[in-house]
Write a structure and sequence with these properties.
Structural class: alpha+beta
Radius of gyration: 15 Å
Order of helices and strands: HHEEEEEEHEEE
Helix content: 10-25%
CATH superfamily: Transthyretin/hydroxyisourate hydrolase domain
Length: 136
Amino acid sequence: MQTIHRLALASLLGCASLAAGAAPNPLSVHVLDLQSGQPSAGIEVTLEQRAGSGWRELARGVTNEQGRIPALYPEDTPMAAASYRIVFKTGEHYRRKGQASFFPQIPVEFTVDAPAQHYHVPLLLSPYGYSTYRGN
């Protein structure tokens, strides 16, 4: 029964390593375009961890055709309780579409206090606004 649940979750998240029995990546993101109602593919995303008074880059990726990065945290690295920032580089996305936008990038800061849990950060995007929340 666990295998069936793991395969279903892997399918939902688009995560082959989970289907193979590996531990799931602790961080995923999803970008949806509120104007079109479609996923936003091709958006560059960076993950940073607070380091003193600045930020240290941990990983980067690009949203897939579903607007997702199912595994943004570095592989084989346990997530630490810390402050993190995901930066969605949305300006280039809108330039490619030939559309003006107000936010060239959107930084989303969050705190991980339970590193064993999964953190999912959706971004609902439009050219002049955005919304985000912690998903599952």
